[in-house]
Design brief:
Layout: E1 2-9, H1 15-21, H2 25-37, E2 41-49, E3 52-59, H3 62-77, H4 81-84, E4 89-92, H5 94-104, H6 116-130, H7 136-155, H8 158-161, H9 165-173, H10 179-183, E5 187-191, H11 195-207, E6 211-216, H12 219-231, E7 238-243, H13 247-253, E8 256-259, H14 270-281, H15 336-345, H16 352-355, H17 363-380, E9 402-406, E10 423-426, H18 428-435, H19 443-492, H20 498-528, H21 534-542, H22 547-564
Parallel strand pairs: 5-6, 5-8, 6-7, 8-9, 9-10
Antiparallel strand pairs: 1-3, 1-4, 2-3
Helix pairs in contact: 2-3, 5-7, 5-19, 6-7, 7-19, 13-14, 15-17, 19-20, 19-21, 19-22
């Protein structure tokens, strides 16, 4: 059996695809169960965070395993396989181990060096253990990954290379200023009471906000988090809990809001945010007509750019959560009709000679394109909005009256909020763009060396463990041969006393042990080297070992390991 990982992350897929592919807790459980039920896999675990979805499995066939795991990911994420495939990556055997260890060390995180991934890996292993989908390989892999991650943080300065996603997001909200100076005295609203929301609340409290209001669908959890914040000795923050239906009113009072829930639809629409800012300032909120930097025309679209604010789309009645504020263009969809619609939204023209379709200026074409978009919205539930490009040089946004940090995947806050005057929104997409240019610390190279060394050691240990049942079976066979010969000697020499029989028995055992010692030690050394997997087969063939005996030893070793593992 061999380790295989199939997944997608912020490095391989746009945020719009990650958002639609996000897996809830129930979907993760079902994905693990269906994976171990599939023919190529015997063990499985899912690592799902706000910017990655990865399926790990122990498979007996590479190509069949890749096909099966990719299909299962598509089925459970709700994103079609054809659309998902271009964004998937595949790692096998040592490369798969290297990938998980790199992830555990924070090398593959959106913010390099962040340590929260260790808790997510621990949760992933715990879930697999609860579902009994983690055997020897998954347990060894994830437990060693946790140790490697802790080693990287303790032996290097990787923590200096990055920080948690929450801290990085707050730094982006502060726009380069000191976070504590920015946060001092502000009123904060935290929507959600899970691990990420709790981290955000604690970080805001340490940064110096004066008040934190926690809203959650389960009020008891919000109340518990608020109590923890009030009881903390290192802050003077005042915290209180409110039900979710109080969010609109609390948003009007807040200076900064952080949202990270497991909701599948929008928690804060652009309209709700606009209403909160208007309630706070007493002035209507305008949309910013952000100047565009020049761009190349897309295939089938003319180079002319115009104003798309009068786009006649109105799907709110049919699909709640679909925003028509700002651009109503489509992100992450390959359907030809939707590409043509996006070109129409940009006020380009569709070249009828290339597409054979009518130009969007005609009412018939507009109705056809809007119908295609409505059908897509019905299929996927909500179409993520494509944000406008960043402002061209020299363009300044008005000073924000409300700061929003969206750490959810799929997003909690409508992307159209980016275009509201008086609001600064930082979301996963913004963080991905900002972190791409973040400087790498020198310690990263040291962590990479640690990962390489640990991958080699893990591979050697796994290969050595693979031959152990064969060596044990060989020694068991030798012990049986010795026992048989001693019994035969007892029958032929009945006059020997117990001392003599003991001396003979000990001498025969010493001879067998000495004959087997060097070959078994050497075969373990050879098996631990790359390409050493064949030595177990050679040993079984040379000594004519019963495959079922070897398998029984292997099962016994696995059972012992299972009992010795910490809960």
């Amino acid at each position: 059996m061999s380790l295989l990982v199939v997944g997608l992350s912020h490095r391989s897929a746009p945020v719009s695809v990650l958002e639609r592919a996000a897996l809830g807790a129930d979907a993760q459980v079902k994905l693990v169960q269906d994976t171990v039920a599939a023919e190529p896999a015997t063990e499985a675990a899912v690592l799902a965070t706000c910017n990655r979805i990865e399926l790990y499995a122990d498979v007996d066939k590479f190509h069949a395993g890749v096909a099966e795991l990719s299909t299962l990911l598509a089925q459970h994420s709700g994103v079609g396989l054809d659309e998902l495939t271009p964004y998937l990556y595949v790692h096998y055997e040592d490369r798969a181990v290297h990938h998980l260890f790199s992830v555990a060390c924070g090398l593959d995180s959106m913010v390099v060096g962040e340590g929260q991934i260790l808790g997510q890996i621990k949760d992933s292993l715990a879930r697999a253990q609860e579902l009994h989908s983690a055997g020897r390989l998954m347990n060894d892999l994830f437990q060693q990954g946790l140790r490697v991650g802790k080693r990287a943080h303790s032996e290097t300065g990787i923590d200096r290379a990055g920080q948690s996603l929450v801290t990085f997001g707050l730094e982006q909200l502060a726009a380069g200023g000191d976070v504590q100076d920015w946060a001092k005295g502000k009123k904060a609203l935290v929507i959600g009471a899970g691990s990420m929301s709790s981290l955000a609340a604690a970080t805001l409290a340490r940064a110096g906000v004066a008040e934190i209001v926690v809203a959650n669908r389960t009020y008891d959890r919000a109340e518990r988090l608020a109590q923890i914040l009030n009881d903390a000795d290192d802050t003077d923050v005042v915290a209180r809990a409110v039900p979710m239906n109080a969010v609109p009113g609390e948003l009007t009072r807040a200076d900064v809001a952080v949202s990270c829930t497991g909701a599948t639809g929008l928690v804060l629409t652009a309209e709700a945010v606009a209403a909160a800012v208007e309630g706070r300032t007493g002035e209507p909120v305008a949309e910013i007509d952000v100047p565009r930097a020049p761009k190349q025309p897309s295939a089938g679209a003319a180079a002319g750019l115009g104003n798309d604010d009068n786009c006649p789309l109105d799907l709110t009645a049919a699909q709640s959560g679909f925003s028509v504020m700002g651009e109503a263009a489509v992100a992450g969809m390959a359907a030809a009709e939707l590409e043509q619609h996006a070109a129409w939204v940009d006020n380009g023209t569709v070249d009828i000679r290339e597409t054979g379709r009518r130009t969007p200026e005609s009412p018939e074409a507009q109705a056809e394109l809007i119908g295609a978009l409505a059908a897509a919205a019905a299929r996927v539930g909500r179409i993520p909005e494509r944000r406008r490009p960043e402002p061209v040089a020299g363009f300044a946004r008005p000073a924000p009256a409300l700061f929003l940090l969206d750490l959810a995947m799929p997003r909690d806050i409508d992307a159209a909020v980016h275009r509201l005057a008086g609001v600064r929104l930082v979301d996963i997409e913004s963080l991905a763009e900002a972190s791409a240019d973040a400087p790498m610390a020198a310690d990263v190279d040291q962590v990479r060396r640690i990962v390489s060394d640990e991958v080699a050691a893990f591979g050697a240990a796994q290969r050595a463990a693979h031959i152990t049942p064969t060596v044990v079976a060989l020694r068991t066979m030798a012990a049986d041969v010795v026992a048989g010969e001693i019994a035969r000697l007892d029958g032929r020499l009945p006059d020997l006393d117990e001392r003599q029989r003991g001396e003979i028995r000990q001498a025969v055992h010493r001879v067998v042990d000495k004959l087997l010692h060097a070959p078994t030690v050497r075969v373990k050394q050879l098996a631990a080297e790359p390409g050493g997997a064949g030595y177990a087969d050679a040993l079984r063939t040379l000594f004519d070992l019963d495959p079922e005996t070897v398998a029984a030893v292997s099962r016994a070793v696995d059972s012992t390991d299972e009992k010795d593992r910490p809960a």
